[in-house]
Amino acid sequence: MQGGFDAVAGNYVLIRHANGEHSLYAHLHQGSVRVNVGDTVTAGAQIAEAGSSGNSTEPHLHFQLIDGPDLNAARGLPITFTGLRPEWVSIEGRHLRSGDVLEQE
The domain 1-77: what is its CATH number? Predict the structure, then answer.
């Protein structure tokens, strides 16, 4: 049995950025991950499908920017979003909708 955050996250992808930060995509649908360890991931690439794996009761995507690869020790970092497509409007004042694409500065 997995313990710690690995068990809570369920199926997940962890992307290492050049600056040492990591993006965590958790609760992914079983069998939907489209990337492999060592792949270079480009902005806009589909990496997986949202699901309900791990400690989850409804399908959703848990996205978090963290300071290291150890999910049990990493700390969350602030995220700045530059906008949403296709509307290019501020995310302030509304919830995200299906199909929204977020970009990080």
Answer: 2.70.70.10
